[in-house]
Each structure stands twice: as structure tokens, then as C-alpha cells.
């Protein structure tokens, strides 16, 4: 049993997860919370190399099952090398994407079998799930418009997908929210950043038992 607290950040493209996290970190540090932030795919050397393969805009011929298995491989390495040791050390671990991304993107988005994805997730994580998942919800068109307006953000292979896939991904997240509402908290990411940060802080502090 881990001693730390695991939080995953999820949402469609352009939901602003990174901006919210950057604003939250100083607040958590002021509270004396020891935080490790990391991302999927990536987080460790092997994971980052797999990330480069997955998100390379030139890899448009990648089969959906290949894509899924690469994500799963990166997830396993990242977990054993970085996430689990941090949890055992009692840290708050905040992950930018985790198991729900595979269900939303490869399951709903690509049309792969959800049961197979659930099995692969359990296989890769030994059944570990986040203590809390913060789902940043935004209309697909608005999220993609944010990406187009942000010249500093990397444009990866998934950003180049058609609108239909991104809409399926959002529906996947909403389906997960209906199914696992106790674990997943919905945040309205269309609001101004300061309001999104305050809402996220309130939910996180409540779940962790931190004084506001």
C-alpha cells in the first residue's frame, strides 16, 4: 500500500492542464506538501523516447494497436521507475495523463476494445488507480482553438487529427466521469484560468484533507 497520494490530470487537447498545474505548485509548496510532477507518455528516459515515437507528426501511418501498446509500455516503465518510489516516499504525485487517456483516446477515439484496454492498464499498473482524477472539460472546438493560438505549445500527431476523433475522446472522458464519479472530479476548463485554479485547488485540498 502506497503512503503518498496520486492525482492524474485529464482532458481533451487544449484544456489547460499544464497552466493550472503551474499555478497550483507554489500554493502546494506553501502548504509544505512534497510534490512530484510528471507526465505520460514520458517522465523517464525510456518513456520520453517512446513519447517521441508516438507523437512524431510524421508517424501518421501508426496502427491504433501499435499506438496503444506504446503508451502501455511507457506507462509501465514510468510507474516502476518514478511514480511508485515517490508514492512510497509519501509524496503527492501529480501526473499529466494516466490510465484514463488510453480509454478516451485509444478506446473511444480509435475504436479499440475497452475491455482489452482496461486489462492492459491493470497489467501495466498492477491495478493502481489515482486517488483523484481531475478532468478538465472543454468544448473540443475551443480547446483546439487554444492550441492554434499558442505558438509556444508543441504540435504533435494527435493535434493534427480530425475534429471527429477529438469529439469521441471528449465523449470517452464524459463516459468515464459517469462511471467513476467518486474518483473523477469534473472541472469547467472554459472559465478564466484563475477560476479554474481556485476550483481545482478546492477539490484537491478537500480530497487530501488540507486546510484551505
TrEMBL record:
Residue numbers binding ATP: 11-18
EC number(s) recorded for this UniProt protein: 2.7.4.9
Family: Belongs to the thymidylate kinase family.
Reaction it catalyzes: dTMP + ATP = dTDP + ADP
Organism name: Streptococcus oralis subsp. dentisani
Gene Ontology cellular component annotations, sorted alphabetically: cytosol
A GO BP entry: dTDP biosynthetic process
Group of enzyme by EC: transferase
UniProt-recorded name of the protein: Thymidylate kinase
Record PANTHER family: THYMIDYLATE KINASE, UMP-CMP KINASE 2, MITOCHONDRIAL
Alphabetical keyword list: ATP-binding, Kinase, Nucleotide biosynthesis, Nucleotide-binding, Transferase
Stretches assigned to the Thymidylate kinase-like domain: 9-198
GO molecular function: ATP binding; dTMP kinase activity
SUPFAM superfamilies from the UniProt entry: P-loop containing nucleoside triphosphate hydrolases
Record InterPro entries: P-loop_NTPase (IPR027417), Thymidylate_kin-like_dom (IPR039430), Thymidylate_kin_CS (IPR018095), Thymidylate_kinase (IPR018094)
Purpose of the protein: Phosphorylation of dTMP to form dTDP in both de novo and salvage pathways of dTTP synthesis.
Top-level taxonomic group: Bacteria
HAMAP family, per the entry: Thymidylate_kinase
Amino acid at each position: 500500500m502506497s503512503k503518498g497520494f496520486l492525482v492524474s490530470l485529464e482532458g481533451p487537447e487544449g484544456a489547460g492542464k499544464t497552466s493550472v498545474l503551474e499555478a497550483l505548485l507554489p500554493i502546494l509548496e506553501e502548504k509544505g506538501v512534497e510534490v512530484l510532477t510528471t507526465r505520460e507518455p514520458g517522465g523517464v528516459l525510456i518513456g520520453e523516447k517512446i513519447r517521441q515515437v508516438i507523437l512524431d507528426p510524421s508517424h501518421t501511418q501508426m496502427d491504433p494497436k501499435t499506438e496503444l501498446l506504446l503508451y502501455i509500455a511507457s506507462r509501465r516503465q514510468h510507474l516502476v521507475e518514478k511514480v511508485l518510489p515517490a508514492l512510497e516516499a509519501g509524496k503527492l504525485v501529480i501526473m499529466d495523463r494516466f490510465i484514463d487517456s488510453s480509454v478516451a483516446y485509444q478506446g473511444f477515439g480509435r475504436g479499440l476494445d475497452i475491455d482489452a484496454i482496461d486489462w492492459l492498464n491493470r497489467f501495466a499498473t498492477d491495478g493502481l488507480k489515482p486517488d483523484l482524477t481531475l478532468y478538465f472539460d472543454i468544448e473540443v472546438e475551443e480547446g483546439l482553438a487554444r492550441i492554434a493560438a499558442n505558438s509556444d505549445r508543441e504540435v504533435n500527431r494527435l493535434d493534427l487529427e480530425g475534429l471527429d476523433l477529438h469529439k469521441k475522446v471528449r465523449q470517452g472522458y464524459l463516459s468515464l466521469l459517469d462511471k467513476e464519479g467518486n474518483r473523477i472530479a469534473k472541472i469547467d476548463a472554459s472559465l478564466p484560468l484563475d477560476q479554474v485554479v481556485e476550483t481545482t485547488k478546492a477539490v484537491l485540498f478537500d480530497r487530501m484533507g488540507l486546510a484551505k
